[in-house]
Design a protein that fits this description.
This protein is an alpha+beta fold. It has 5 helices and 9 strands, in the order H-H-H-H-H-E-E-E-E-E-E-E-E-E.
């Protein structure tokens, strides 16, 4: 029987345990899903048995995950998932605060922003245009959003979504700070 451990440079047991935990599964739950005993899962994770290709495939089917995904998943190089406020880069200008979530992540396919507009602040006299789409939800305060010559004042709980190639600008008309959580794709910063 072909033995994976002898041909691979990763620690199968440690890797399986990390993958199982990443998916939030107990040994018992994974065993139940895969149709094997939880003792087998335990023995593999402790490196007390070397699973055959077919045995490991059966265990991974319980996640579900392919053998290729299992062996190519870089658990050590996983990008961060959680970000403290002080880790969010402020890419705003003037008094407008635009905090970018995961700014240091490579190959992001979207940008998520936590935006703050003090009273009477705006994105500038010039309208903004860029490729893609953007949307957001007003969390606190009010914002006047102008998109393609049409303006509307949005309040807490109101939302927007538009093609970013249409000229647009944001302005806080009120006396209190406006807070927005937004996303755009593709990321422009």
């Amino acid at each position: 029987m072909f033995n994976i451990i002898n041909t691979m440079s990763i620690d199968i047991g440690v890797h399986l345990k990390a993958v199982r935990q990443m998916f939030g599964l107990s040994q018992r739950e994974l065993a139940k899903r895969a149709g094997v005993t939880n003792g087998l899962i335990s023995l593999i994770e402790q490196n007390r048995v070397s699973p055959s290709v077919s045995s490991l495939k059966k265990v991974l089917d319980g996640i579900p995950m392919t053998l290729a995904d299992f062996f190519t998943l870089d658990l050590a190089g996983r990008p961060p998932v959680f970000f403290a406020r002080e880790e969010l880069a402020d890419i705003g200008t003037g008094s407008v605060e635009l905090r970018l979530v995961g700014g240091g992540l490579a190959k992001r396919s979207m940008a998520i922003l936590h935006e703050r507009y003090p009273a009477h602040a705006d994105t500038g006299e010039e309208v903004l245009t860029h490729p893609g789409e953007e949307g957001g939800v007003v969390v606190a305060g009010r914002i006047e959003l102008t998109v393609g010559g049409e303006s509307r004042i949005l309040s807490r709980g109101d939302a927007y979504y538009f093609k970013s190639s249409i000229p647009h600008r944001f302005r806080n008309p009120g006396r209190e700070e406006c807070e927005i959580v937004s996303a755009s794709s593709p990321p422009t910063f």
